[in-house]
Specification:
By secondary structure, the protein is α+β, with helices and mostly antiparallel strands. It is 27% helix and 33% strand. The longest helix is centred in the C-terminal third of the chain and has 21 residues, at 558-578.
Length: 595
């Protein structure tokens, strides 16, 4: 075990984690030059197209130093705040972390939050200045920031470049010298933690685990403690670029197990695996359960595909443990699922993956967060969908989730960033200068306000310089009202939203105006209204298409024309009672893009 090192790479978005991982794979000869491509570990089409890491990727490397053979288990993690759950799982399986900081941009919000995650798990931190080959690199200034943040020595900071490969041998030496070897007892009963799983249509579910104590051999009978199920280990092995079969995997190692599990619910990330004959009493303390931030309904476009959508979601949940869902039904959209996501990017990626990997076309409703509503009888209800909110007459108050947002930006943009946060009902808690030019601002604000377009607008007002990170704090009472959208008096539940009372009129008006542009004209007039309870606060009208029934009357008495118009009017009235309004998918999506 003393020759094993388990470590992960953490950093802010775009600081060069995956590129540096490529150089480590090359330097250790894990990947031949023929197999190497840019960001080798990002194997999903979406990751390649967008240039971001969505999934953590584990890979084992062999390396020789001073005549000794070492095994290095590396996990490359995502940098975006929406995928921080992936990072927390990777950190739970490691003893050390490479903290990468872009030498041209310095420390940013995600760097700090990922660092705190690693420190909570007592990982050994190795700070690395990346992108040293760029002419705009500021090594001295950024080194000062790192020393202030971690409290390390200047000599501890390594300088490297993911693009040119400069400094990679120093990084490998530092990993072997500084990261502690895993602790564990190879003779104790087998104990391992699942940190990830994938679905393979031919082999069933493949679980990735980290062994803490004991060892597992091929064909052993194992038990998953959380579900209590028992399986035979049909195949075990280690994670190279392609999984490599082994006869046994022992303490300190990271590997995979295939045991013919077909049902997604039987594997839970964070679960402990042990032997059936010699079970362990000591369950691995996994990581906390995921807390979804944003809720939205996902419905199949064709209602017959409901069961197919359920299967697709279960398979996707294996690969992305931060997705949570439960069945729900809607009057307008039929049967579907209420899904919890960690943020808007996460929601977009899930929708895209359902379409690409499972050929499911889906409708997504307006995203919102969960609230607690207290009725006049003193009963507290959890509300994840605005349609579940009690009537205004029986409602005492509503509590909404607040977050603590940490924004790091250049001093020039402080005014614009503060204006944006205050507009989003933020409360300024603290402002401190990290250096003469970099400011850290901490706000407390409602989560509902940052769900839609906060991140995009923050990037706009700061010319792309501000970095943003948040964590939930508590639920607080707020003046919230439910705004319903009515079409010809019928409520469209997919467009209902819970909005702060002060913004209700403006947002109601905007939704109505937007719908007027998007709903196609019918043979009858359509009234679009926004209402709070029974009070209408805004209205727009889509005019009817009208056939010119008087065209055949040229000359003659006015009463003939009037007779035809009256007849048409009656027809329109009857049509309005029977005709129903089709709301196009573009209208549901457009409401999300309201400013």
């Amino acid at each position: 075990m003393k020759h094993i090192r388990n470590f992960c790479i953490i950093a802010h978005i775009d600081h060069g984690k995956s590129t540096l991982a490529d150089r480590l794979l090359q330097a250790t000869g894990t990947v031949s030059d023929r197999e190497l491509q840019e960001q080798t570990l990002d194997d999903m089409d979406l990751e390649r197209e967008r240039g971001i890491t969505i999934k953590s990727h584990a890979i084992q490397m062999n390396y020789q130093q001073d005549g000794e053979e070492y095994v290095l288990n590396l996990i490359d993690t995502p940098g975006h705040v929406d995928f921080s759950y992936e990072v927390s799982r990777s950190i739970a399986a490691c003893e050390g972390a490479l903290l990468i900081v872009d030498a041209t941009q310095g420390i940013q919000a995600q760097t700090i939050s990922n660092l705190y995650l690693a420190l909570e798990h007592n990982l050994e931190i190795i700070p690395i200045l990346n992108k040293m080959d760029l002419p705009s690199a500021m090594p001295e200034e950024v080194s000062d920031q790192i020393v202030d943040l971690i409290g390390c020595e200047y000599e501890d900071i390594l300088r490297a470049s993911g693009k040119t490969g400069e400094g990679v041998p120093d990084v490998l030496r530092a990993i072997i010298e500084r990261v502690p070897a895993p602790e564990g007892d190879p003779k104790a009963p087998f104990r391992a933690m699942i940190f990830d799983s994938v679905f393979n249509p031919f082999r069933g579910i493949i679980a990735y685990f980290r062994v803490y104590d004991g060892e597992i051999n091929e064909r052993d009978l194992v038990k998953f403690i959380n579900t209590g199920k028992q399986y035979g280990a049909d195949e075990i092995g280690v994670l190279r670029l392609n999984p490599e079969k082994r006869k046994k995997v022992s303490a300190g190692d990271v590997g995979y197990i295939i045991s013919g599990i077909k049902v997604a619910r039987e594997v839970k990330v964070g679960d402990t695996i042990t032997h059936v004959e010699r079970p362990t009493d000591n369950i691995v303390k996994g990581f906390e359960d995921v807390k979804p931030m944003v809720f939205a309904g996902i419905y199949p476009v064709d209602t017959d595909e409901y069961e197919e959508l359920r299967e697709s979601m279960e398979k996707l949940q294996l690969n992305d443990a931060s997705l949570t869902f439960e069945p729900e039904s809607s009057a307008a959209l039929g049967f579907g699922f209420r899904c919890g996501f960690l943020g808007m990017l996460h929601m977009e990626i899930i929708q895209e993956r359902l379409e690409r990997e499972f050929n499911m076309t889906v409708i997504t409703t307006v995203p919102n967060v969960s609230y607690f509503a207290t009725t006049t009888d003193g009963e507290t209800l959890k509300v994840t969908n605005p349609s579940e909110l009690p009537e205004p007459s029986t409602l005492a108050h509503v509590e909404e989730p607040f977050i603590s947002a940490q924004i790091i930006t250049k001093a020039d943009f402080v005014g614009a960033v503060m204006t944006l946060c205050i507009e989003k009902r933020g409360i300024l808690i603290n402002q401190s200068y990290l250096t003469t030019d970099r400011v850290e601002i901490i706000f407390e604000m409602p989560l509902a306000e940052i769900v839609f377009d906060f991140y995009d607008r923050l990037k706009t007002v700061s010319k792309g310089y501000a970095s943003f990170d948040y964590h939930p704090i508590e639920y607080r009472q707020s003046q919230l009202v439910k705004v319903d959208i009515l079409l010809n008096g019928d409520q469209v539940d997919a467009l209902s939203a819970l909005i702060h009372r002060d913004n209700a009129y403006t947002i109601g008006k905007k939704i109505c105006t937007k719908l007027r542009e998007l709903i196609p004209r019918q043979q009858f007039e359509i009234a679009i209204q926004a209402a709070i309870g029974s009070k209408i606060i805004a209205r727009e009208t889509v005019k009817a298409l009208r056939k010119d029934v008087t065209a055949k009357c040229y000359g003659g008495d006015i009463s003939r024309k009037r007779k035809l118009l009256e007849k048409q009017k009656k027809g329109k009235k009857r049509m309005r009672q029977v005709g129903n309004v089709e709301v196009p998918q573009s209208a549901f999506m457009a409401v999300l893009q309201l400013d």
